[in-house]
Amino acid sequence: MLNNLANWVAEKFNRAQPQIAIEAGTELSTTAQPVFTQAFERVEAVNRGVTMIVQAAASLDYDVKSSLSSSVVVGTRAKQLNTLLNYRPNPYQSAQDFRRNIFTDFLLEGNAFIYYDGAFLYHLPAQQVKIETDEKTYISGYSYSNSTIKFGVDEVFSFHDTSSHSIYRGTSRLLAAKQSIETIYSMQLLQKNFF
């Protein structure tokens, strides 16, 4: 009886979800425009602003409370979670490098994706991750790099910023500054041609 109830709850959350999934499409790729990455690389003010926010956010440690239940994620204890978030997310990156990648993606793309293999956390570049929608359970999975690598919903942590048009992917905070960025590009081009 408990299994039937669990299956019913897993399939019966949102009656509008089938229509939402159809309207969104089966796979959602990046909505960020290349102009934001280019602006980060070429426009001094954008680079400085994003870098200041990323550096500040990456330098903060997370306080994992000892009062959390013994298992935060299936098979992961609070002490292990503290180590993953604050000291060693994976064998190849420091916690600060890992966080810088996550926060840079979040600001430029509006989304951040983290793969958890059961032992370590790995950054998945947001521009390459596609969200596979589901008509019943919101998301059926994730794919990376033209759908060649697949991830289950229990393997990826997805964070997205506010969006006015999608419940799956966020919108870059730089979208509001797009016109200003393009104006700066035009001014730089004029200056380069003039001199």
Q: Helix and strand string, N-terminal first?
A: HHEHHEEHHEEEEEEH
What is the CA-CA span between the terminal residues? Answer: 78 Å
For the biggest β-sheet, the strand order reads 1-6-7-8
Query: What amount of the residues lies in strands?
Result: 15-25%
The largest β sheet comes out as: 4 strands, antiparallel
Q: Briefly note the structural class of the backbone.
A: alpha+beta
Q: Shape, please?
A: globular
Q: Residue share in helices?
A: 40-55%
The total count of strands amounts to 9
Low-confidence stretches: none
Instruction: Indicate how many domains the architecture comprises.
Output: 1
- Give average pLDDT, whole number: 82
Number of H/I helices: 7
Radius of gyration: 20 Å
Describe this structure in words.
- The protein has 195 residues and is α+β, with helices and mostly antiparallel strands.
- The chain has one domain.
- The protein is 43% helix and 19% strand.
- The protein is built from seven helices and nine strands, in the order ααβααββααββββββα.
- A four-stranded antiparallel sheet has the order 1-6-7-8.
- Helix 3 crosses helix 4 (44-58) and helix 4 crosses helix 6 (95-109).
- It is globular, with a radius of gyration of 20 Å.
- The N and C termini lie far apart (78 Å).
- The model has no long low-confidence stretch (mean pLDDT 82).
Features:
single chain, 9 strands, 3-stranded antiparallel β-sheet, globular, about 200 residues, alpha+beta
